[in-house]
Write a structure and sequence with these properties.
By secondary structure, the protein is of the alpha/beta class. It is built from 15 helices and 16 strands.
C-alpha cells in the first residue's frame, strides 16, 4: 500500500480523563501507523484548555502521540505540542483528512487536502443536529464515513443529505490490545460510559436519546440474571431517582474517574472484566443505525465476550459466539446465561471475531480504498 500522509482530528484531551473515549481516537493513530502511514493528530479545544492544567497535562501524558499531535486553540494559531507552522506544513502535503464529527474547521489546514472525510462516530446525532440547524461542517468535506453501517438503508430514518455514507466498523489495534492471559479479576459483566453524554434531540419522529433511556428499559436485568453487572458510569449525583432505581435493582455502580481515567487504566479495566454488557444510546437503537461500539471492539480483542444491545449491526458482524445481541432485559439475561455456560469458548470466539473483522490492519485499508474509489 502506498504510504500516505494523514491528518486526523478527534477528541483525546478536550474532555480529559476519559480513557475509553481517548482510545476511540488512538485506535486510528495506532492502526494507521502500523500500516506505514504518517499520521498527525490535531484536536481543536477552547483556548483556555491550552493553559497548564487538566487538558494540556492529560494530553502530554498520552501514549502514541509524542511528536505527532497538537491541541489547537479554536480561532487561534496557539498550540500545545506541534506548532501551528508544523501543522500547516503537514496539512499542505497531506493526502487525506479524517475529521471525527467535523471537529476541525480551520480552513487554512483544510484547504490543500483533496480528500476530506467527515468521520461520524455518533450516527444519528450528527445528522439530526445538522438537520435542525446546528452547523456540523458538512460542506467542508468531500467524503462521508460512518460507523452507523445502516445509514442509507430504507428502514433507517437517519437523514443522508444526499451523501453516500461509507460504512466502516470501529478499528482496534490488536498490537495494543492483546488477548487477556489471566482469568477476569472482576466477577461481573461491565460497561463503561455516561448516563447522559449531551442533550437528546428529536428529528422526523425519532427521539435520539441517551444511554439513560436505554438503561431505564433494562432496569430489571440484574433481577432476571444470576450474573453480576457493574457500571463504570458517569452520572451526576443529582440523578437521585435513577441512582436509587439502579441500586435497588442490583446494579453495581463504580466511578469511571477512578477505574478508567486514562488509556492504561481503561485497558486494565476492560481486560479485568468477565465480559461487556454493551448498552447503546437509545438514539442508536431506535434509529436502527447499525452502530457498533469501539469499546466493544476493545473487549472482543481482549478475549472478553460482549452482550450488546441490538442496533442493527448484525449484518456486518457474526453473532452467536463471543458476540451476542439483546433487545429486552429478558433476552439480555438469556444471552448472559449463554456466555456464562461456556465462558472459555465465548472468550476464544471474541478474540477470533476481533481478529477477523475489527483488526485495524483490515478495517483501515478497506476504508482508505473506499475513499480512493468514491
Amino acid at each position: 500500500m502506498e504510504r500516505l500522509k494523514i491528518l486526523l482530528s478527534g477528541m483525546v484531551a478536550g474532555d480529559p480523563h476519559q480513557g475509553g473515549a481517548t482510545w476511540a481516537v488512538l485506535q486510528y493513530v495506532a492502526g494507521l501507523e502500523e500500516l506505514g502511514h504518517e499520521v498527525v493528530l490535531v484536536e481543536p479545544v477552547p483556548v483556555e484548555s491550552l493553559e497548564p492544567g487538566a487538558a494540556a497535562g492529560y494530553f502530554r501524558g498520552l501514549p502514541l502521540l509524542e511528536g505527532r499531535a497538537a491541541l489547537l486553540g479554536r480561532g487561534t494559531r496557539h498550540t500545545v505540542g506541534l506548532s501551528y507552522a508544523e501543522l500547516l506544513k503537514f496539512a499542505r502535503g497531506a493526502d487525506l483528512l479524517l475529521n471525527i464529527s467535523g471537529m476541525l474547521r480551520d480552513e487554512r489546514l483544510l484547504e490543500a487536502i483533496q480528500v476530506r472525510a467527515f468521520l461520524d462516530l455518533d450516527p444519528g446525532f450528527n445528522q439530526a443536529w445538522e438537520a435542525t440547524g446546528a452547523e456540523m461542517g458538512f460542506d467542508l468535506h468531500t467524503h462521508f464515513v460512518t460507523v452507523g453501517v445502516r445509514i442509507g438503508s430504507e428502514d433507517c430514518p437517519i437523514p443522508t443529505f444526499g451523501h453516500d455514507w461509507i460504512p466502516t466498523l470501529p478499528p482496534v489495534s490488536l498490537a495494543h490490545w492483546p488477548a487477556a492471559d489471566m482469568p477476569p479479576e472482576r466477577d461481573a459483566f461491565t460497561s463503561v460510559g455516561h448516563w447522559r453524554s449531551y442533550g437528546s434531540i428529536e428529528h422526523d419522529g425519532v427521539h435520539y436519546g441517551q444511554r439513560a433511556h436505554s438503561l431505564r428499559r433494562l432496569i430489571e436485568l440484574p433481577r432476571r440474571s444470576d450474573a453480576e453487572f457493574e457500571l463504570a458510569l458517569g452520572i451526576h449525583p443529582d440523578e437521585v431517582d435513577d441512582l436509587r432505581a439502579l441500586r435497588e435493582n442490583g446494579w453495581r455502580l463504580v466511578d469511571p474517574s477512578e477505574l478508567a481515567s486514562s488509556p492504561q487504566a481503561y485497558a486494565s479495566y476492560v481486560r479485568g472484566s468477565k465480559g461487556e454488557l454493551s448498552v447503546a444510546k437509545s438514539g442508536y437503537v431506535d434509529s436502527r443505525s447499525g452502530w457498533f461500539s469501539d469499546r466493544s471492539a476493545c473487549y472482543l480483542a481482549s478475549g472478553r465476550p460482549v452482550v450488546a444491545q441490538d442496533t442493527g449491526f448484525g449484518g456486518s458482524l457474526p453473532l452467536g459466539e463471543g458476540l451476542l445481541v439483546f433487545v429486552t432485559a429478558e433476552t439480555a439475561a438469556a444471552a448472559v446465561a449463554e456466555v456464562e455456560a461456556d465462558p472459555i469458548r465465548h472468550g476464544r470466539a471474541a478474540r477470533e471475531l476481533a481478529e477477523a473483522h475489527l483488526d485495524a490492519r483490515k478495517v483501515l485499508p478497506a476504508l482508505i480504498e473506499r475513499l480512493a474509489n468514491a
